[in-house]
Amino acid sequence: MDIFSSPISKFMTKKVITSTVSSTIKSVCKSMYDNNVGCLVIVKQTIKGIIPVGIITERDLVKIVGSMELFYPQVSIREFMSYPLISGNSAMTLSKAMDIMSKKNIRRLPIIDRKGNHEKLVGIVTEKDIINAIAKRRRDRSRS
After folding, report:
1. Across 41-56, average pLDDT
2. Alpha helices in the chain (DSSP H)
3. Are 88 and 8 a contacting pair, CB within 8 Å?
4. pLDDT for residue 64
5. What domains does the chain contain, in order, with CATH numbers?
């Protein structure tokens, strides 16, 4: 099977660090630092359970801090997160995920599986995950 027709679930990072819509800029920055990640998926509690509603990235945080005349680290992240959340599902192909990321000009794609009315965050695909998958394929082919 060609790598680009493989399901994205083969390449996604399954441990996704999240934060809530009521988190502050400071707590989001600390969580990103503590977990050595470049983004957090923002979630909220609903009747359906915990659902992903947005994303905040390092680039977003730079824009926030750079645009504020006075920086207030206790401000809620809710007003700064990117939403609605652009996402994929674990059955989509690597090629489809790359198309979405390219068309939407995003570097991270949360992977959400839906069953009935329920959504579950099952992973995230980053540009780095895609580059690593392609590089591994090239290494494997050169050994053959």
Report:
1. 91
2. 25-35, 58-67, 94-104, 127-143
3. yes
4. 87
5. 3-143 (3.10.580.10)
